[in-house]
Amino acid sequence: MHAEIVTTGTELLLGEIVDTNAAYIARQLRSIGLNLFYKTTVGDNEERMTAVLQQALQRSDVVIVSGGLGPTVDDVTREAVAAATGRKLVLDETLLAAIERHYARWGRPMSENNRRQAYKPEGALGIENPVGTAPIFALEHEGKLIIVLPGVPREMTYLLDNVVLPYLREKLHLAEVIITRNLRTCAIGESDVDQLIGDLERESNPTVGLAAHPGQTVVRLTAKAQSEAEALHLLDEMEARVRERLGDVIYGVDGDTLEGTVVRLLREKGLTLALVETNTRGRLAHDLTSTPDGLAAVKGTLIASSDDA
Asked: What is the model's pTM?
């Protein structure tokens, strides 16, 4: 069983805002052991959105949609889901009453176009939104499940964490967990890492993947198991195999930074550092002294505009 994320909004396609919703949803699906195979972004166009949702329902068991639940004309997710599943939109009086209560609490009259937010595809489960005016809904269609969330990040995260994840756990009988660990390397290129651990990258659980960054390569380990303890055990075993191949080019794990590791080693060995920088324009000094430990370890810096200086 696997999931797909569909995020909507022309502003995402234009690059005006970064799609943080998809990344957050992906992390949360991982936490409940639901595999994610696809992520798609589509603009505020009902026809194209309908086509994307139809494709998603053909290839994925669970489709999570984010965005397009507002009251305005370009909020067309409700219509697209209805079209993709061959259903009509119906007014949910319970959801409408919830929206009216929001406006009453704010002491403001509800606009007529807010009624649009109380519509859902026929047969869908409507779910109130306690932190916004856009209710959400879940719909079962031909053995598949589609869940639609707001695009506003604050509302999306609240409803995902407090409503959707528990619903998915119970509905799909999810008992597994997926945990990822990142081994951070430096002084070695991605192709060299691949030569050393290429056979491990073909393993199925844990999986091993590479991600190249400027000056660094991250080795990503991902394990799926019935419990967190079992997943961590699998990761520990695979990490040991990777470390045996790569040795001390691995400088840290997960949130460790290169500069933080340098500072830690200096402190452990009772050493201090002086810096003279030219072409880096003080970047090295800035990174190394960004923490109190770094300030203590770096005794002095000189930033010169050129080699001659």
From this structure: 0.77
